[in-house]
Design a protein that fits this description.
Blueprint (H helix, E strand, L loop, with lengths): L10 E5 L6 H12 L2 E4 H14 L7 H9 L3 E6 L2 E6 L2 E2 L1 H5 L1 H11 L2 H12 L7 E5 L2 H5 L5 E6 L2 H14 L6 H17 L12 E4 L5 H16 L1
Parallel strand pairs: 1-6, 1-7, 2-6, 7-8
Antiparallel strand pairs: 3-4, 4-5
The structure holds cytidine-5'-monophosphate (C5P).
The site of cytidine-5'-monophosphate (C5P) has 14 residues, from helix 2, helix 5 and helix 9.
């Protein structure tokens, strides 16, 4: 076993299920702190898109591992958020919907895929700091992150938030169906064997059901100040 040196680059790990405001909170924190962002969900969505395009099933371990090495996934930042590129094509709109989330969740349950994507996620850790959002940031990808937050909210609130978000992006969505899809995806993410969706023991858990984004950002900023002082 190799022992890696502890990184001096601070990380804020933000985990939690869909619709808890992780991405929005991460964006606000990045703006305030001037730190980098890792949207790990975007990476899983892009990878699933590429795997589907190449006709690779979730049990084709050799094919999936080789796919990560092809370096066909890229990200760029834009005012509206991270833009996702696969094989030179902007696929942001194609992967951001619930279909993209469902496919991502299937490939994300494959241990070889998770291992293959680890290196790239850890490489995002750069000064002055990183805000990483996902499902296993505090437990697996950055277990030594000095600040760990787990955001949660009731299923009804999460579905409504996601509904609003998707409608604003121009997706045609049905609230009841969306609630079912989110529940199915949560179940899959919570019950997979490797890196399941779970709060790290040392995470600060926030129920965002009755809280606005500003309140959540303030709460996390208090943790950041406590860490820095
Ligand atoms: O965060 P987002 O909804 O974009 O993530 C899409 C899916 O990607 C999740 O439902 C989950 O299955 C997978 N994912 C993951 N680990 C992460 C981030 C996302 O398994 N760190």
């Amino acid at each position: 076993m190799t022992i890696e040196p502890k990184s001096t680059v601070p990380v804020i790990a933000i985990d939690g299920p869909s619709g808890t405001g992780k991405g929005t909170v991460a964006a606000h924190l990045a703006e305030r702190l001037g730190w980098h962002i890792l949207d790990s969900g975007a990476l899983y969505r892009a990878f699933a898109y590429l795997a589907t395009q190449r006709g690779l099933s979730a049990d084709d371990i050799g094919g999936l591992t080789a796919l990560e090495r092809t370096d066909l996934i890229r990200f760029s930042s834009a005012p509206g958020g991270v833009q996702i590129w696969v094989a030179g094509r902007n696929v942001t709109d194609a992967v951001r919907g619930e279909e993209g989330g469902r496919t991502a969740s299937v490939y994300a349950a494959v241990p070889a895929v998770r291992s293959a994507l680890l290196v790239r996620q850890r490489a995002a850790r750069r000064l002055p700091g990183l805000i990483a959002d996902g499902r296993d940031m505090g437990t697996v990808v950055f277990p030594d992150a000095p600040i760990k937050v787990f955001l949660d909210a009731t299923p009804g609130v999460r579905a409504k938030r996601r509904y609003k978000q998707l409608m604003e992006k121009g997706f045609d969505v049905n609230l009841a169906r969306l609630e079912e899809e989110i529940a199915r995806r949560d179940y899959q993410d919570i019950h997979r064997t490797q890196s399941p969706l779970i709060a790290a023991d040392d995470a600060h858990v926030v129920d965002t059901s009755e809280k606005g984004i500003k309140d959540v950002v303030c709460e996390v900023m208090q943790l950041v100040h406590a860490y820095m002082n």
